[in-house]
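Give me the 3D structure for Ferric uptake regulation protein.
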Amino acid sequence: MESTLAEKLLREVSLSITRQRLAVLELFLKEEHPMTPHEVREILDDQERVDQVTIYRVLEALVRTRILTQVPSTDRNSYYCLAERLHGLHAHLYCNLCHRMLCVESPVSAGTTERGKELHVVLSGTCTRCDEEVPDSTI
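Predicted structure for Ferric uptake regulation protein (139 residues):
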């Protein structure tokens, strides 16, 4: 039987393959945008019963092994995203209107970071979706 990408990544970092780790990692590989632990639980509740404590433990293990990275935020939430080695160098945009964190092309032209180092660029503003929904009052 062919291994999934999530299974390969877990083996690569010597994490045991559990149902919960697979569910969380497959979600991040599919969605490809930063999510809070609460968002992860809400999405997984539809398919897989995973309690909040387990989600926090899985996220911690995936950050420790550099599969995910924790994105700094000013809204007092913890956001998690695929690490640079899996998602490429990118920045994040926190939308002040819909309060979502999105991956965006990096405004920094640094090729790669040093091994073990992380580069976090978080922009604050309005996402494209909200920008299209809110009429421009200056016209």
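The chain has a mean pLDDT of 82. Let me know if you want a second pass.
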